[in-house]
Input
Amino acid sequence: MATTEAIDVVMPQMGVSVSEGTITKWLKQQGEQVEADEPLLEISTDKVDTEVPSPGSGVLSEILVQEGQTVDVGTKLAVIGGDGASGASGSEPQTQEAEAPAPATAEAAAEAEAPSSAESPAPTAQPAEETAPAASTNGKTFVSPVVAKIASEHGVDPSQVQGTGRGGRVTKKDILNFIESGAQPAQAAPAAPAQPDAPAAPAAPQPARAAAPPTPPSPAPSAAQPGESFEPMTAMRKGIAEHMRRSLDTSAHVTSAIEVDMSKVSAIRAKLKKEYQQSYGVNPTYLIFVARAATETLREYPWINGEIRGDQIVTRSYVNLGFAVELADGKGLIVPVVKNAETLNLLGMAKAVTDIAQRARDKKLLPDEVQGGTFTITNPGGYGTFHGTPVISQPQAGILGTYAVVKRPWVVQDDLGEDVIAIRSIMNLTLTYDHRLVDGALAGRFLRDLKHKLENWDESAY
Amino acid sequence: MAELTYLQAISDGLRTEMRRDKRVFVIGEDVGVYGGAFKVTLGFQEEFGHWRVLDAPLAETAIVGACTGAAIMGMRPVAEMQFADFISCAWDHLVTVAAKQRYRAGTPVPITVRLPSGGGFSGGPFHSQNPESSFAHIPGLKCVCPATPEDAKGLLISAIEDPNPVLYFEHKHLYRRIKAEVPEERYTVPIGKARTHREGDDLSVITWGAMVYTADEAAQQLDSDGVSVEVIDLRTVMPWDKQAVLASVRKTSKALVLHEDTRTGGFGAEIAATIAEEAFEDMDAPVKRIAAPDTPVPFSPPLEKAFIPQVDDVVAGLRELAEY
Output
């Protein structure tokens, strides 16, 4: 058996705003041999669902956090190698187990009215569950349609019911008996541990989080009214909700807009399209022209590519460009990041954006690819909208919105310098910026320069 | 009330209608002089004469074709297939002509086709089948499958007076094994209405024909475990009593569909699909099917026993559902 030094498996940091993750599946069981970099478990956060590779080789000697539990980033999840439970890990699992249930309980309380989620954590009040094999945990978390219905009608969390079905599953009888016995739903649970992540969050990169006012515990929702129905919030939706609120509470959002004549870009696009598609399988979209031009412009406006961190202003020698991508099911948004965008030419940008957007929709992003952005582009124009006020992705200082390219009558000058009306392809761009750091004039100059680059596209330079 | 076997109840129903309605006549192989392969029409030719109890050649096509023509001309023919298996010869007349006539021309086709069906006595592949699902699939045909003597009589009378072609599946294994009180007077059992054979709260078995008894025996065994099983006897496979099935399943939240026909495309699949579509939110377990495997019916008694769902199979299935 393993004689190597024990290696800890910890909950990885999955993104800037992510402070916790849920274990969805252990791919290896306790006692199994695992090789370095072999997929060890699957986790779900508000940003990504991903596999976590093993940090080393050896026997998986101890699993400390079971499937379905949500724990803070950095929490020890398992031990590989060593002497299993003995030695250094002897006392630690105790603390871990004491800690782990806390967020789970808070979540259970918040979810008391929406219990049908298959991801709802297994009850933590039963230590016996900890030693049960994974199969029984799976059985326990499955909630049948009728049990889900009864649970939502009576506001009961099925995970609080003792199950007698296969693998401990809660049967219809179990939940009816539970209700009949007059057991109280879990709503009354104290909401105190709502911020278990505060001390655990790394202080440096997340001052905004620490500065944000504490999120008031959401009141337990009342039962469904006629015509209403409940669906549980996914981890992603909760993450988005928290981040949107926190961003508006943090930055002073102001939006400026500018109109850009995309005729030249449009002509170059048409010219490049065939070559890009045939040789590289990518499309030279308007978006990548904007991304390319924005990256160039950002180099001249470091504060817009910057961040307020405590009392300091952070500027960078690089641009990590985030792109807001709508997921295929229309029920979520993710912002994968193209790192070092300043090193990419137009083709490189096209390939990078196509790749991350596709993998975002396929849920194949790696944790590293959704963090570290310094500026974000969002493109709601695909649906024809011509203006918007997006919310800044914290802790960045700005977000660029691109909108529909529409043909409009436009005043241009002819060869003689006379004004004439022409039909041109016009796109609106918005810059939403944090007015704490970026002044209106700065934002205006940024948009002016960006417009200039797009209208006078220099093929040789990009 | 007299105690009749299932077979006697069929004869009784047929005789009742022939006495009451001169348009009713019987046609089939050996139904006259011989009284039918299973003696359902024994003594009929003596009572009703050879013009109302017709011996036909070995030609199911001709029998159903003649019935269709006679029905269009206003008669109420009752055809007997010697074995349900042989109805395949009459497929074209039933499916292409009789089932469509009402829709095409508006003329009713009030024929009844009696189909001795089912296995359990080493009849082998040609004398044991339960082809109800093939015909339930054809719009324009009705299919009834009585399980009790009382229903056998009442459903036969309903089939004869129905203005549409009705396939009357009579299970051979029940002919002389099942005996019960049957009212002497004329009565009908409505087509399309299920019957609760046994009431229960924990599980629903939906079945018909001889499997009603298999289900009932299994339910008795579960009863001693403290699991209460409801047995729904569908009685009519087409049109089937969706409301009764859904009501039972909504009560128990667990359903087992049982039939003697083979599994794939058997009528149980339609029932299971309907439960999934319409009662999904009331289910506490996946719908379970127990049916014969997808092979012809074997001759060998041990093999046939392995083929036709047995009480033990149903008990095991019910236990599995109960424990789910």
